[in-house]
Amino acid sequence: MHIVRHFPRQIHEEEDWITLADGCRLAVRIWRPMDAEREPVPAILEYLPYRKRDLTAMRDAQSHAYWAGHGYAGVRVDIRGSGESDGVLRDEYLQQELDDGVEILKWLGQQTWCTGDVGMIGISWGGFNGLQIAALQPPELKAVITLCSTDDRYADDVHHMGGCLLGDNLSWASTMFDANTCPPDPMLVGERWREMWQERLEGSGLWLAKWLKHQRRDDYWKHGSVCEDFSRIRCPVYAVSGWADGYCNAVFRLLAGLEVPRKGLVGPWSHKYPHLGVPGPAIGFLQESLRWWDHWLKDKDTGIMDEPMLRVWMQESVPPSARYETRPGRWVSEPSWPSPRIDMQPFRLTSGHDLLPMTTASTLPENHDETPLTIRSPLSVGLFAGKWCSYNAPPDLPHDQRDEDGGALVFQTARLDQDIEICGQPVVELEIEADQPVAMVAIRLSDIAEDDKATRISYGLLNLTHRDSDEHPQPLEPGERYHVRVLLKHIAQQFPAGNAIRLSISSSYWPLAWPAPAPVKLTIHPASSRLLLPCRSPQPQEEAALPAFAPPEAAPPLAKTLVQPSQETWRVIRDLANDQTTLEVINDEGTFRLDDIDLELSVRITERYTYAYSNYDSISGWTQWERCFRRGDWEVRSVTRTLMTSSAESFRVRATLDAYENDSRVFAKSWDEEIPRDLV
């Protein structure tokens, strides 16, 4: 990455508070041109609970200072109850958070250094609330860039997929369990820090138990889901994600559903800003964002809206790996979405495990029959799936799918005689039955190389009780046939000549998704089942005319001293003597010191997902976060642990929180809650 040290305008940086109407003070960090009082500038707001002073300080300094140097005020605000802001954070995207955001925008519009025009940007949480606040139509908000976020909190968030409960629901709840234990910095808030900290420790609550009480798409998830009424958003939106991210589907729904000027960008990246994007190639996203802000906040003709609505990275075939540094491919575009240039090509499933293009009846082999096929997958299917949302890629991407396919029904094309490119959302239509009232189906689409290595391209899940509705699921009648549609993740991928396309169907996908209450046998009727691929013809002249993205650049990073290096491991542990299997994930982020504020930070995260052979009552997920802040003789530590188990009837969550000041434990609390399963 190129570090820019000299900007068109000199930068002034300050930390302050915004006092809201109810007296609550929100901590804010502002980077703006030194001459902004004389020549006011638009503001760019990022509004997060991730602690501007330390946890996101490195990233914030490189992006917000960059915008400030180009004539904007970069504004980073900690949500109520986080960082140095007053209050307690009790859940995601509460109405209080959104109302506070509207007040922040009003405050910004009244500052003498601001023109009154504001944009919002954010990745993940900040991408969510940018859309949600836009739907409230505050007059100051003129444009949004939303990254790695969603329009639908039930269909495409860290909690559920296809009505199935995601393993990342536990992982993410543990992340926020830890975040809510972090104290404000005494250097800023003074002696109030201890009182504020105790209030958070006592009041934030166990979010996992709260989420588990909403297993279907009820009003809880509809709140903050802007897809409920896209017309509420009346400012332009730039939606960005990556193929390795969990949120790429939302880009396409936003392009199709919004009525305002809009653009979409999807690269090969995981849950990262594109100028920091891995797998690469990373791009000059901060320059791209300036083109967007200059157009909508300064009324400059940057040409950005003359370019295609959608740009995506067309991935080329690669061997399977949990750690891609880069994904080979090329940028392609579509002038609109949905694109009239993309055709859904059907492939039929056969009892002989073929995947045949549905062109003419003559494509069926002479010995073709329509015998139903059954599958009762072992719980090991999913151990090599990686994360639903890749945060730390590498190494949390899926590995060779041959490790999974032994427990799945597999259908495969012949070796391709020409390249096939897809761009969009693959769909699988199944005629299916189950022998249990609650069942799930997991479907994977893989690229099979000439050496038979299998690289997962896309996948989808469906809780079959949600076949007709996420809001009103219905149990299955064992033995009854159902026609269901399983939506896979959007993807742009080239399958080269000589490779094959594989469709794999399983009845479980643990620990990416929590299994059904009991083992399930699925019966697939191939004659009435098919795969639909969104096929796209290359447009070489159009692609050659696309302007290239600039190389990544950013403002200088904060001074940081490494005290202890980080390390990360993913291990599948098979204890054959006891028929027990564990996926263990360790992410030790090491220890580093932020030199400017003389603050040392460290965190170590451990996750274990376990089962005993075919015993569904043995399934468990366990997480532990160990966090420490240190400055001189001041040290604060917290340890949070969460254990989630299940029976056929319920989920059980046990959790503990211990907090320490220096060598003394100053807070301890435990939870033990049981939540009935609701057709999950």
Automatic annotation (TrEMBL):
It comes from the Bacteria. SMART domains: PepX_C. Keywords: Hydrolase. GO terms for molecular function: hydrolase activity. InterPro entries: AB_hydrolase_fold, CocE/Ser_esterase, Galactose-bd-like_sf, Xaa-Pro-like_dom, Xaa-Pro_dipept_C, Xaa-Pro_dipeptidyl-ppase/CocE. Residues 290-555 form the Xaa-Pro dipeptidyl-peptidase C-terminal domain. PANTHER family: COCE_NOND FAMILY, PUTATIVE (AFU_ORTHOLOGUE AFUA_7G00600)-RELATED, PEPTIDASE S9 PROLYL OLIGOPEPTIDASE. NCBIfam families: CocE_NonD. This is CocE/NonD family hydrolase. It comes from Chromohalobacter beijerinckii.
